[in-house]
Amino acid sequence: VQLVESGGGSVQPGGTLSVSCVVTGYRYQYSCMGWFRQAPGMEREGVAVLWDGGGSTYYSDSVKGRFTISKDKFENTLYLQMNSLKPEDTGMYYCAAERWCIGAMSFDALTYNYRGQGTQVTVS
User: Fold this and answer.
1) Is 107 helix (H, G, I), strand (E, B) or coil?
2) Which residues of 51-88 are buried (b: 16+ CB within 10 A; e: fewer)?
3) What is the pLDDT of residue 79?
4) Statement: residue 103 has pLDDT above 90
5) Strands 119-123, 9-11: parallel, antiparallel or unpaired by DSSP?
């Protein structure tokens, strides 16, 4: 299984950016997918989770109302639309996939077997 992120870049505060994650080689019908970020010197943070078995989405308090996670099942691509970006949103953004969501633990990247290499987002 491979996950490849793209779409990161630099944007001014208040701006918008979208990152995507293409998944290949995943053989299960449903998946739990998440977006995570890590700033230099900071712990990795889970920001959004999607269970594509029913379309449920979950967000951390830090991004709720500003970020939207979605998935195109036909393209096997996960997206994160980021609006009203703040300097504290800066970091390396990673996607991850696992067969099942397990509640709040799905905001912990360590619970995912499959993770991408990340794409940098800078807000300044």
Assistant:
1) helix
2) bbeeeeebbbeebeebbbbbbeeeebbbbbebeebeee
3) 98
4) no
5) parallel
